[in-house]
# Entry
Amino acid sequence: MTKAILVFLSLVLLTGCWDQMPLRKLRMVDMVGLDLGENDRGVVLENVVTRLKKAGQGEGEPQSETTEFKNSSVLEAVGQSEYVESGPFININTRLYLMSDRFAMHDPVKELAFLLRAPYTIINSPVVIFEGSVTQLFKKGQTDTESLIEFVRLLDKNRILRNVSMMKLILSKADPLEDLALPLLGPSDSGVKLRGALLFRQGRSTGRKLDDDQVRMLALLSGVYQGRQRFTGKLAESDIGEHSMQDLPNSVPYGFSVKRGNTKIQISPRSDGMPNITLQIRLQLNAFYLGQEVQSIKADYVSQMEKALSKHLENKAMQTIENLQKANCDVLGIGNQIKAYHPNIWKSLDWRKDYSKLTIEPVFHVKILNPEEI
# Structure
């Protein structure tokens, strides 16, 4: 009996935690927007919080709320967010960092390096660039937070363009061989769409971009393959070459997905000390269109198309490689290959000066796996 009375009194007198905060009051930031202020003065920080409206048992309608902070630096804007009625904001659940192209041009790593040591902050989430004003994008209220985050996730999952985390972007500044291609999004009638990639060299934007076709080619050159990607286009007469006077027309539409493949970087020395770089890309394709009705394609035609596709992809690859060299951005990791496997060649190079002068030749070997089905 005495024990029962003591237990009862303990329950009555327990007060709980004095410093607790109800979960519903925590402002868990889903997405962070970063932009420059008017006339490129100061920064604008956008904290996007998603809450459930009309929440019930296991369901609810998500609703995004954006709170804007302006200050001379991102660090001061973050500090400012601690003292507003809509706070405090917790960044342990941030799923996306959205950076305007203007912000990206002004040494973003310098502004964001403090995040590496900031408590209650997740830095493994992806960073993407928005072509235009992030501030205006949020003010128009046309952005569905969940849809945007899912879109970025699928870019990585489908191997269209690999995500780059905030941590990787920050750490790349100290690595002379860590060049990156960050997804570049732009406005569309339905929200946002992929516009290509913005190229970064040691944490700073080069100002050069890859268009969406070059982004897909970058995936092929990097050896990143996924059957969910569908490649479509048209073979020009120059791609068809000597076969243009035979069975093939002067312009051939095509469509394929990559079943499997691999890319090998071959490095051979030259007498002048500069190496020749050859990218050997072997692709096994499932084609779903090759310029003719599927029932009428013959084996000889498929063989000609394999050669034509190889030449076509080589021409498109050269355009992508030239763009990378003009940006002095080694996203393909050729420098790492030379340093690791050809140390004598590496010692003779001044990499940042010599990279843009290298001869880099892509060679495609295309094999169509399903000629009997197309």
